[in-house]
Amino acid sequence: GGNKEESSRKSTVSYKNINQMPKQTEVNDLMIFVDKKYETVILPIFGIPVPFHISTIKNISQSIEGDYTYLRVNFFHPGATLAKTDGNMFVANFDSTFLKELTYRATNVKEPGEISAPSSNLNTAFRLIKEVQKKFKTREAEEREKEG
Amino acid sequence: MDYLEYNDSSKEERGSMILGRLKLTNSQVIFKSSKTGKVETITGSDVESITWHRMAGEWALRVMTASGHMYRFGGFNESDYEKLGKFFDKQYGLELKTRDNSLRGWNWGTAAFDGAVLGFDVKKSERAFEVPLMNVSHCTTAKNEVTLEFHHNDDAPNSLMEMRFHIPTIDGVDPVASFME
Fold first, then answer.
1. Number of helices and strands (H, E) in chain B?
2. Which of B56, B120, B135 sits opposite A49 (nearest CB)?
3. pTM of the predicted model, to two decimals?
4. A142, A134 Cβ separation under 8 angstroms
5. Quick one: closest CA in B to A122, which residue?
6. What is the DSSP letter of A69?
7. How far is CA B21 from CA B40, B43, B69, B88, B155, in A?
8. What gap in Å lies between CA B167 and CA A98, rounded to an integer?
């Protein structure tokens, strides 16, 4: 409902406790998982599935080089071009270190017995991040309009 | 109870959880990879701290040595905590500390160096992730920016290749020196 969206927009906290973290195999197997419900992208970093709220992601890009697919996630940070509302989180955090970018690589080659190549996880992530980001931005714009 | 043995354990290596057997004795921590048979041993007296936290959807033991090396063993259940806590207290004289991973979803925080580990803390008691620095193949800097490149790992479902930080210029401290081993 409206209240829930209102609060998530203001706080932009992904999960309040561990029980809200998805238990999908992608998360446990250290693949990328996009959680549409909590508008969060879970990225594996050396053994830990790390949530990033969609509002922290500036853009993503994907490229194929030889046998590999690359997925690059660019995060908002001070000094980057900001949308009107995105500046808020930097004011209070000007002395923080910001994670600016993460790049993943997976092979396009399917091993015998695999249903799909490892890179299909990056392809799915790319598509879903775009989708969640679009939805989030549209809602943000609508709420800004309502507030005038 | 002089030793504990976990046959379905795992060890984090370059972003993969390697399956194997973990044995904890009063003087050693021993991990044997079930795939390669490789055995790694940590001398008990070298263990400086032990932390209980979550990894890859399960509970994990994080063993930090006095020389600054971090070992992380996964595959534990919540119910293992008490037994392990008692074991380390009795055999190593160490408290099994617990730590929460940050679930906030923020990309800003504090970079903290602890031995050969770079930790990224969203809040003082909430760590988002850790980078074992031996995974770093190359490190470069630009204005307010540090880029880490990693040894790739084709055994992982996906391999983290690069990580870039924006670092504010406040105290003029060069964080690059700490990255270089």
1. 2, 15
2. B56
3. 0.91
4. no
5. B158
6. E
7. 11, 17, 20, 18, 19
8. 7
Angle between helices A2-11 and A119-147 (to 10 degrees): 100
| Chain A stretch 46-65, residues whose beta carbon is closer than 8 A to a beta carbon of chain B | 46-53, 56
- B-chain residues near A18 (CB < 8 A): 54, 103
- Asked whether B33 and B19 are in contact (CB, 8 A), the reply is yes
* C-alpha–C-alpha distance, residues B28 and B40, integer Å: 10
Residue A97: closest CA among A118, A119, A79: A79
Q: pLDDT tens-digit profile of B33-56? A: 999 999 999 999 999 999 999 999
What is the predicted ipTM?
0.94
Q: Enumerate the β-bridge partners of residue B39.
A: B32
Contact: B168, A97; criterion CB under 8 Å: yes
Tokens for B112, please give them: 């903290």
Q: Is B22 helix (H, G, I), strand (E, B) or coil?
A: strand
pLDDT at A85 over 60: no
Residue B110, both tokens: 């504090």
For the CA atoms of A129, A132, A135, A139, the dihedral, rounded to the nearest 10 degrees, stands at: -110
Collapsing DSSP to helix, strand or coil, A138 comes out as helix
Residue B59 CA: distances (Å) to CA of A28, B9, B79, B173:
11, 10, 10, 36
Distance CA B33, CA B148 (A): 28
